[in-house]
Design goal:
Elements: H1 8-11, E1 31-33, E2 36-40, E3 45-48, E4 56-62, E5 67-68, E6 79-81, E7 86-102, E8 110-116, E9 121-124, E10 129-147, H2 153-156, E11 159-161, H3 166-172, E12 180-182
Parallel strand pairs: 8-12
Antiparallel strand pairs: 1-9, 2-3, 4-10, 5-10, 6-11, 7-8, 7-9, 7-10
C-alpha cells in the first residue's frame, strides 16, 4: 500500500492546485490563432472569428488601466486566475491588453503576451495561471471559451495569490529569469 502525501498547499491551508501544477510534466502551450478577415476597407471590417468547440462567450470590459485580477490589497502580490476545466480564446475588440501567463508544466513557464485590437486570438490552455493589464484607455476583450462538461463558473474563476504558492512566486519574482516576451518589449 502506498502512502498518500498531501500537497504543500493543502498542508499549509491553501487551495489545492489542479493536477497540472503538482508535477512538472509538459503542458499544452498557449497559441496565437489567426482568423479569417473577409473585408478590411477604410469604413468596414468584417471577420470570421469562430473558435471551433467554443461553448461559452464572455465579454470582459476594462474601463481604464485595470488589472485583473487585482494585486492583493494587503501585500501587493500578483494574483492570477487559473481555469482547470476551461480553455480561453481571447480577442481584443477594442484597445489593448497585456497578459501574464504562467504554466509550471511548460519548459519555460513565464510568458508575457500582448493583445491588440485586430490582432490574433490568444488561446490559453486549461491549468495556466493568467492575469491581464489593460491600456490606459481600457479594453474590450471577447472570450470564446471551451468549457468541459460539468465545469463550474465558481471553480473556474478562483483567484490565486502568488505569495501563497511558492513555485508561482518563484517564477514571477524579480529574481527569477526574465519572462519570454510576445509582442511586448522592455
Amino acid at each position: 500500500m502506498t502512502a498518500t502525501v498531501p500537497s504543500p498547499n493543502l498542508a499549509a491551508g491553501l487551495p489545492e492546485l489542479p493536477a497540472p501544477h503538482r508535477s512538472p510534466r509538459p503542458a499544452p502551450m498557449f497559441e496565437m490563432i489567426p482568423y479569417e478577415k473577409f473585408r478590411d476597407t477604410p469604413s468596414v471590417r468584417f471577420f470570421d472569428i469562430t473558435v471551433p468547440g467554443s461553448n461559452a462567450r464572455d465579454m470582459v470590459v476594462h474601463a481604464g488601466p485595470a488589472i485583473s485580477p487585482p494585486n492583493d490589497p494587503g501585500s501587493g502580490a500578483w494574483q492570477f486566475y487559473l481555469h482547470p476545466h476551461q480553455e480561453d480564446n481571447l480577442l481584443a475588440m477594442h484597445g489593448g491588453r497585456t497578459f501574464y501567463l504562467v504554466n509550471l508544466g511548460w519548459n519555460y513557464p513565464f510568458h508575457i503576451v500582448r493583445l491588440e485590437s485586430g490582432g490574433d486570438i490568444l488561446r490559453i490552455p486549461p491549468g495556466t495561471f493568467h492575469r491581464s493589464v489593460s491600456d490606459p484607455d481600457g479594453s474590450l476583450v471577447l472570450n470564446q471559451a471551451v468549457r468541459e462538461e460539468g465545469a463550474s463558473v465558481v471553480r473556474e474563476f478562483r483567484v490565486y495569490n502568488s505569495s501563497r504558492i511558492p513555485r508561482l512566486f518563484a517564477v514571477t519574482s524579480r529574481t527569477a529569469p526574465l519572462p519570454k516576451l510576445h509582442g511586448v518589449s522592455w
